Amino acid sequence: MMKTMYQYAAILGHQSHLSLAELAATIPGFNLESIEQKVVVLFSSSHPLSQDSMDQLGGTILLAERITTADVTMADIPKIMNNEVKSVKKKVTFGLRCFGVPRPLVKTAYIKGKQIMKDQKRSCRYVGNEKKAAATALLHGAQILTGKKGVEIFIVQVKNSLWIGKTIAAQNIDEYTWRDMEKPVRDTTVGLLPPKLAQIMLNLGAFMVRTPPDPKRKKLKKEIYTVLDPFCGTGVIPLECLLRGWHILASDVAAKAVSGTQKNLDWMRKEKKILKKDVSEKVEKHDAEKAFSHKTLPDIVVTETSLGPNLERNANSRDATKMRNDNEKLQAAFLKNAAATLPGVPLVCTWPFWRVKGEAIHLEKIWKVLDEAGYEAVLPDGIDGTSPERPTLLYQRTGQFVGREIVMLKPKTSEELESK
Q1: What gap in Å lies between CA 165 and CA 162, rounded to an integer?
Q2: Backbone angles phi, psi at 268, to 5 degrees
Q3: What is the dihedral of CA 184, 227, 237, 410, to 10 degrees?
Q4: Pairing between strand 31-36 and 40-45?
Q5: 361 pairs with which residues across the strands?
Q6: CA within 20 to 30 Å of 71's CA: 30, 193, 229, 307, which one?
Q7: d(Cα 207, Cα 27) in Å, to the nearest integer?
Q8: Quick check: 49 pLDDT over 80?
């Protein structure tokens, strides 16, 4: 019996390569069909997706579910939209989100959609227009995503046909802003890890725990992992773990950071009513270069390692080389320690890189350390890395002088080590 596959479209974030890697790592049975207009990914999943799925994704802006595979044109859109809002009571709110469709056709669809509502004597309004679709915050506020008060039809021109869906989930920007800006302790003297990037890293880490499946691991309806962050800073990664119900092991060499993480976790527990009996935590002062001694090994290490000095302008070649050499020593010491005292535990971590006159300055000696420590850098299937020689993912926002190189480190098996 053929398994049902659900078809979706996703709008990728600004770091599209990273967003795609997260989807490939997270979506059950992910099958990439095509990438349209550079930012729209058409794919299928073996499981239905929802706003709950979306809330776990840091790199996806919006998610739409395909509603018809019929050969339709833009002239059919008003009728399709009308069919989707039959159960809506009182005033209907509708919108269109189009990619690769000429603006005059989009404008006509809006006008005819409103005319159909008027002919049926139904009160309606539309959000967005032929120039710009509605903001995601408006989709949440207007209850369009749930279908309770309306619908947004999602349209992509794919070669000679239209992909038609409806928007079912979108990033909750207000929620991200709240937990990033309202937490009691923020340290602006170091590179602030965005909550969205923390989510992406956690999803990449979970992928490594699941791949390949461990027959000894108990299967649960909901993924529950224990995550170690040994460079916890003020606790961005531990906070995201807490919101997922994942158990927390957090440490940092700086007492100030440990205190900040604890205060932020206490705040989040109070705000979201998350009890320690449901999600455990251990926050302590510890140097990541010294032996870890946890009674039970974590499932994954997910961490933003040191990115070096906080820069106010681009580094010159001499400074970048010095920062790279200093950082290589720290990374090497941490990885050797992890290999020795966290055996078999996969890692997702960040390394810094710098741009000098348009050229990226990456850590280089670290690759020999990885090999000697028994780690292999991996990526989800079908995902291209920074280069064939660097299976990593880069993250750098406009105006940042230090970039992040995200690396997924899988411990080699004893058989792999013996075959060296």
Answers
A1: 10
A2: -65, -40
A3: 160
A4: antiparallel
A5: 354
A6: 30
A7: 10
A8: yes
